[in-house]
Amino acid sequence: MKNPTKSFSWSSKSSSRSAGEDREAKRSKRSTEVVGMAQSSANTVAASGSSSNADLVSLFECPVCFDHVLPPIQQCQSGHLVCASCRPKLSCCPTCRGPLGNIRNLAMERVAMTVMFPCKYASMGCELTLSHTDKVEHEDSCDFRPYVCPCPGAVCKWGGPLENVMAHLMSAHKSITTLQGEDIVFLATDINLPGAVDWVMMQSCFGHHFMLILEKQEKYEGHPQFFAVVQIIGSRKQAENFAYS
Ligand SMILES: [Zn+2]
Ligand SMILES: [Zn+2]
Ligand SMILES: [Zn+2]
Ligand SMILES: [Zn+2]
């Protein structure tokens, strides 16, 4: 027989990993609580001051990437700001073409402490505003951040919103078989051929789509090893409803 098959199955609680993500669900919960607290202090600032939070936020816009300039903040010799990720790529100030120098702007850093910045996925629907210290951590687990293609091997460079992941898989990865139902039989052909390979299929069950991946790793102590991965095509929250058993 040239096509031996490998089969395994699992029950209702099947996955704890979600598309394009690692396991950081707990962290995101914590940052949401912090967001709630910080939000109320910003409202106080906005209500008591004459300039609105939005006016202040606009002062921190990087002229190159339109993301925000966050502490530590450096300015050019004429006082223009540029963000820390754009700055190393520039040979002069993008606003005045003058030398960038090495001048810290502590006053703007102090102002940044009082400003609530929008999440960088605001244009994709995230409505949170956060202190600059919480912003980076939140963006890491924001539900609106683009998902990467869940196919193994990182060959596909697609990224987009969660709701488009299935459409992408169906148009760009047509060869992946989708099966329905809660009993899963995974068919992997040619498992004895040499080399590290992945087998991928989709399973629709429990109202969700799951990507099943069988990974072969060549020759661990002389024998090939197989790893099975189940990923829900969904958010971290949805993934929390499932577990390996
Ligand atoms: Zn920038
Ligand atoms: Zn300048
Ligand atoms: Zn967000
Ligand atoms: Zn893809």
CATH fold name of the largest domain: Herpes Virus-1
SSE pattern: EHHEEHEEHEEHEEEEH
Main-sheet strand order equals: 1-11-10-9-8
Task: State the domain count.
Answer: 3
Radius of gyration: 24 Å
The counted number of beta strands is 11
How much of the residues is beta strand, in percent? 15-25%
CATH level 1 name of the largest domain: Alpha Beta
The averaged pLDDT comes out at 79
Determine the N-to-C terminus distance: 32 Å
Give the overall shape.
elongated
The CATH architecture category of the largest domain equals 2-Layer Sandwich
Structural class: alpha+beta
Treating each run of at least 4 consecutive H or I residues as one helix, how many helices? 6
Q: Please describe the biggest sheet, giving its number of strands, its sense, and whether it closes into a barrel.
A: 5 strands, mixed
Going by CATH, the homologous superfamily of the largest domain would be Zinc/RING finger domain, C3HC4 (zinc finger)
User: Uncertain runs with pLDDT below 50, 5 residues or more?
Assistant: 1-48
Helix percent band: 25-40%
Quaternary state of this entry equals: single chain
